[in-house]
Structure prediction request, 569 residues.
Amino acid sequence: MIVTTIRRGLAAGASGVLIAGIGVVAPVAAAVPEQAVVALAGPSPVTVPGVHVQAFLDAVQVEVVTGDPAALRALATQPGVLGVSPNLPVAAAGFAYDRGGKHKGSNGDGSSDNSGSSDGSSAAGTTEGVLASQTLGAPAGQPGAGAGVTVALVDTGVSDTPALNRESGRLVDAVDTSGLNNRGGHVVEHGTFTDGYGHGTFMASLIAGGPVDGTDGAALGVAPGATVDVVKVADDSGRSSLAAVIAGLNWVATHADSVDVANLSMSVTQPTATYGVDPLNFAVTLTRYAGVTVVAASGNTPGQVGDPGFSPDALTVGAADTTGDTPVVADFSGYGDVDGVTKPDVVAAGVNVLGEMPDDAVIAQQYPNARQPSGLFRGSGTSQATAIVSGLAALYLQAHPHANPWIVKSAIRNAATPIQPSIADGQGLVGVPDGRDAHPLNTGEQTLNLAQWFSTVSYWAPVWPLARMWGARMWGTDSWDARMWGARMWGARMWGADWWDARMWGARMWGSDSWQARMWDARMWGARMWDARMWGARMWGSDIWDARMWDARMWGARMWDAESWGDGS
Prediction:
């Protein structure tokens, strides 16, 4: 799998670290300009003398800045600033092992477990691995499946392959934000954003790859008619950063009128000891409210869900082992109870999945044994499973073009089939939704413990009125426009006969089970919900963006960890 490491600190030679937050600055050896990420309370940039705004990401309310530590400390105290963090870098390194079926896999700590024996055969139609399109059935993988739907791939870029290339018109270069990994770098919106690392190319082939040699005429991807927008957030060594990833989401949210699905085959270790809102998953929230279905990996650590996959707003995907007669949850797949919400939402094939990998990609060079006799590459992890579900979302949106992200998420959850008696599979193994399933708003978010979820805001947001946090950008004219309330959001599918029937608004929705004391009692709306602990100092207090929020637990060890690359031995 791809494991990330973190370098914490400001600059080489600095003796201290700006941990971000009001007045939280350690001593430094010299006033060296440093790069930082600033979360904002509204849609306007904020600066002070000595601070240069490198990039303003208005759709996700973040700015990337450079300045010396004293200037950054002054910036953190300004009205409209929620918090300041170093732009933590991420260095990716691949890791390979032979999954060999359901008895082999990752221990969840970066090591491998090659115990057990298996010939690696697959129930999906090939002796060397699993074809994503064949794990779902029709119309997955059929010619034109997903046509008219655009999936933004937030990843390492995409190189042309026989399965998916720019000549087809279905691979479109969107933006390269990897320049924000460095001071002085910038976002590039024109160019060819290829993939020297290989990760993004592999995921693109699973989403929208067509037939290639070795697939016996079957499509490699789930939605071979869909278009993939290349949102490159990492350089050719696989290195990314907080600023680059959030900038990628900013591009998606800004272009929500033309983007339907965002694929994030990545997982960052949760930022604090408990789950909760943070700038990365808040960017996911804003992206979904712009009208884009965000599909994210649950991560490769059993018993834990990575960020932003633990966002209640994300359609979170775990991995299943489908190589045997009976599918099971992969032993490395992340899962957990996120403040009352079960994650992942669903699981999809994530063991021995076959995809395209350029011969000159870093991953291909590091793990040559993952190349199969057919020429395809084999890998396992929640990254692959996430790409499959993004393709599945494209199939649903092709058939239901006015469906909003809530409906897409519900439909995919509704069509899943439980495969084991635990929360590890969420709603179960995915299937192709037909849109006629019960429980139309089955997003799984209704059980969220809001007080517990927002309790972590005190780590990254100082004392600002609630309106500053959820002000003009969230509830103002920029958000409550056609993207929010137009056909994609609240169109015929939402307000038509299929939704305003007894299933939606009948006894199950408005009956005693929903509106009785359990839902509206003091626990929800009383002192425990609205007192100072919720909205006062602990929520908006000054102990923000500190080491508890932005230390190695946040950005260490698991940025691109959601897959492994089988060696095929």
About this structure: Residues 92 and 202 are 16 Å apart (CA to CA). The chain is about 25% helix and 15% strand.
